[in-house]
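Supplementary notes for students who missed Thursday's class. We covered one full example, reproduced here. Read the sequence, then the structure, then the short commentary at the end.
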Amino acid sequence: MSHGVLVALTGDLEQATVAGVDAARDLVVVRRCADMAELVAAALAGLGSVAVVDAGFEPDRSLVARLAQAGTSTVVVCESDDLQRYGSMGAAAVAADEGVAAIVAAVGAAAAAVPTSIAEIAAEAEPTEPERPPGGLVVVWGPAGAPGRTTVAINLAAEIAAAGQRALLIDADLWGAAIAPSLGLLEESAGIAAAVRAADQGTLEPTSLLRLCAQVNENLLVLPGLPRSSRWREVSGAGIDAVWAPARRLADWVVVEAGVWVPDDDRVGGFDAVLGARRNAVTASAMAEADALVVVGAAEPIGIQRLVQTLLDLDGRSEVPARRHVVVTRVRSEAAGPRPGDSVREALNRFAGVDDVLIIPDDRPALDKACLAGATLTEIAPKSAAREAHAALAERLTGVAAPTRPRRRRRR
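Structure (token representation):
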């Protein structure tokens, strides 16, 4: 059985490689591509099981993942210094100075083991030795309607930091990033997009990730989200997959605010193979990596209804972490009756089978003061009932309690 080979090389190396591949057993060159667009189109058409790419075309993790989705392995011909970088992307890397024989051998090996999924590509990549034990990762998520996800994510990370552990807060809400402005970090910098670009190029490490973060205090780091939701395609699913490992090595706990899950955005195959990852890919990637999931809802009639539907939808998803915490915000008697906490618990137990709910009182004066100051409840209102609820959530997740008197903020 012959394996089709797509070639995207330049100069004399292209001619020599084409001749070497055609002379090899079970290999045949089916297309000589002038650029990456032609290469991807040929792969999506099912013309080749292996693509040989010149490093001069700047292949990245997204390209390797896109080709893998089409059932095509990638072989990158590069300099010796770049072998590890391209190997970490999931490609088979060959040094150009090794000669045509080495390139043909790599093509033959790739043809014999064509990857069928992005997960298999990641498994084949050469593992790197972690610089420190990886930290935990928590995803803060909830239904549509802004039920307080940003507030919970910010104050959860702040409580972890107040307990003396380094916390990294990542804004992965592609629909409406709000963490940076909520903390008074008004720079027009899309830290998560820059991190994904570095991950696509195989250069993202804890030290480079640290440079992309804003430092709120000595223990709290923030990776800002997209300042405009129209830029969501800058954050690819394949690139975001490679962000979590450096993030875990940078902090004791990584808190990720994820965007809402849109069911119609879950389609696979067809045009998705051409257009690439959709918005749900980022939330799905974070959940698949997470150690725990915090589901946030609002204590209002519509908010509780949406929360119940969301919790029921989670039961059929295998990629969602089993460790879950349900948090209900805006708990007040005006919206949930004279005993709002009991009413919320009863409704969730009856309709969603949830018997452990963390209630966050609607301490509006403290929350408004923190929002106006661009600060956290730990700094503005350490004795607030809402702050105590967030501290309880942080202790549940980490097992470490924050002190009563938090450290002062030092912004950088």
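Commentary. The first strand starts at residue 3 and ends at 8. The chain has 20 helices and 13 strands. If anything here is unclear, bring it to office hours.
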